[in-house]
């Protein structure tokens, strides 16, 4: 089989999110395995493109030669059901689904139903689907009518990184995630307001540009909390490994994660974790390495943080367990080998 692959994605591949990070590293690792990967940007506006944007995106792919093998990021592909229906017999279409679009937070029931229907229709026209977690695989099999043998799980790889040294005075709580509603930074800040009696500082690292409205709301929330001298919205940082290395606790109150690469990064650098039992997070974070509480529950999140702040022995034990779990995570080459094998065998 030819090792020529077209990888199509929305927007800019250098966008600093976990999904785009996965795309970049997977493409690089596939090239190391001998794949000739052609990159095609499908433009902006996804997952809710205007009609003109959608037509232009489809046009870029419809110009490909017959029998081209095409892997399309699900953030765009979930909206391309009509295009997929026209081209499925001519092109070898596969999809990379980080998480179903209908599970994005902030959608009302009508929007969820519409997103699910479109993505289900689009996925029906694929030769196969690559997902980044077992939770997403189960979701597609149960609710999107994708046969299990058409799905492969290729969880994100992990780079070697230094273990966190901890021991901060006061302890440093680190959160990493774009300033969007789904990442739940508002819940984290509300939780920290309940812990003002304890010594700590918090550093929230993540782009403010993907949703400027949410970023502005979070800035107001920090100012109104009276904790602006203890909570820092640090913005985007390209290499976050030094951030993990100097922290004592990792905390992210995501309302949903298709995988949650930052949780794996926290494990790899030996940080105890406070998160939410949402999406694939329970698959990533072992119980020995952190506390997972219900989403949208500032009281429960604060209680978990309080335990790690007040119980050094618990913090150390969970840090050790995190490091052990992190050492068992796959490399990006491991991830690419799974993707490569699937692309070679998909009908």
TrEMBL record:
| Keyword Transcription regulation part of the UniProt annotation | no
Q: Does the keyword Transferase apply?
A: yes
Top-level taxon of the source organism: Bacteria
Q: Which InterPro entries does the annotation name?
A: Glyco_trans_4-like_N
The family database entries (Gene3D superfamilies) matched by this protein are listed as: Glycogen Phosphorylase B
Q: Which Pfam families match?
A: Glyco_trans_1_4 (PF13692), Glyco_transf_4 (PF13439)
Residue ranges occupied by any Glycosyltransferase subfamily 4-like N-terminal domain in the UniProt entry = 83-160
Keywords of the record, alphabetical order, are: Transferase
Drop me one GO molecular function for this one: glycosyltransferase activity
The name this protein goes by in its record: Glycosyltransferase, family 1
């Amino acid at each position: 089989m030819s090792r020529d692959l077209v990888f199509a994605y929305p927007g800019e591949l250098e966008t600093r999110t976990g999904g785009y990070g996965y795309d970049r590293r997977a493409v690089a690792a596939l090239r190391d395995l001998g794949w000739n990967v052609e990159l095609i940007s499908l433009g902006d506006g996804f997952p809710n493109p205007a009609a003109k944007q959608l037509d232009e995106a489809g046009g870029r792919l419809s110009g490909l030669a017959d029998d081209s093998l095409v892997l399309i990021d699900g953030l765009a592909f979930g909206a391309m059901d009509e295009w997929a229906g026209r081209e499925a017999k001519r092109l070898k279409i596969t999809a990379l689904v980080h998480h179903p679009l209908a599970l994005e937070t902030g959608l009302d029931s009508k929007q969820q139903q519409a997103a699910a229907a479109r993505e289900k229709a689009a996925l029906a026209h694929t030769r196969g689907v690559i997902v980044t977690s077992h939770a997403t695989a189960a979701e597609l099999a149960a609710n999107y009518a994708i046969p299990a043998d058409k799905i492969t799980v290729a969880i994100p790889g992990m780079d070697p990184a230094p273990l966190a040294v901890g021991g901060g005075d006061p302890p440093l709580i680190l959160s990493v995630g774009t300033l969007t509603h789904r990442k739940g930074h508002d819940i984290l800040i509300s939780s920290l307001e309940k812990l003002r009696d304890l010594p700590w500082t918090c550093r929230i690292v993540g782009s403010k540009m993907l949703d400027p409205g949410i970023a502005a709301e979070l800035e107001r929330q920090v100012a109104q909390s009276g904790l602006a001298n203890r909570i820092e919205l640090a913005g985007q940082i390209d290499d976050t490994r030094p951030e993990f290395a100097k922290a004592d606790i990792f905390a992210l109150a995501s309302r949903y994660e298709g995988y949650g690469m930052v949780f794996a990064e926290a494990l790899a650098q030996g940080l105890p974790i406070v998160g939410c039992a949402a999406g694939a997070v329970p698959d990533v974070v072992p119980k020995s390495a952190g506390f997972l509480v219900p989403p949208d529950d500032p009281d429960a999140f604060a209680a978990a943080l309080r335990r790690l702040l007040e119980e050094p022995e618990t913090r150390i034990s969970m840090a050790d367990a995190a490091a052990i779990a992190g050492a068992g995570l796959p490399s990006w080459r491991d991830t690419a080998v799974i993707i490569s094998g699937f692309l070679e065998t998909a009908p």
